[in-house]
Amino acid sequence: ALDADGPHRDAAAEWRxxxxxxxxxxxxxxxxxxxxxxxxxxxxxxxILTGVLEEHPESTEGNFLYGASLLNLEQxxxxxxxxxxxxxxxxxxxxxxxxxGQALLREGKPDQAIPHLKTAIASDEDGNAHFQLFRAxxxxxxxQLANQALAEYQKFRASVEQTKAVEEGSQITAPxx
Length: 177
Hints:
Blueprint: H1 2-5, H2 8-21, H3 26-38, H4 42-55, H5 60-72, H6 76-89, H7 94-106, H8 110-120, H9 128-139, H10 143-169
């Protein structure tokens, strides 16, 4: 319930208590890992997921979280095999496409990153995947597609800003109300 409501630090504390009661319960370990991921405590996630992946190497979420944590710890080369493993098990996992595209881009492999980033823009919420796709095209030397991607990124960002302004404007009420 705490994870759903947003106080992930409190949720992590509750998951830790649950883990004391039932050690090696994969559902509890994964709940803790997700809470830690949400609060960006990537160093704490790795030991938990090491255990999970030793027992359940096929875990899509375990592979994704491990790879995404490594990526966030600036270890894109180490992240790539885990992100690929997550996508082998769930080829539709948008977050894994995003992370793998970013990892490949950071490793200087823009041509390999492009298909993943193209898939990732379908679930892009902040424009990051759009911008990364622009970078990948630019680095691969495809200026025409880079220009198209940049235009799409700018259009996307303008739409996000407009939606944000409308949402903020809808919260304004008349004085005295």
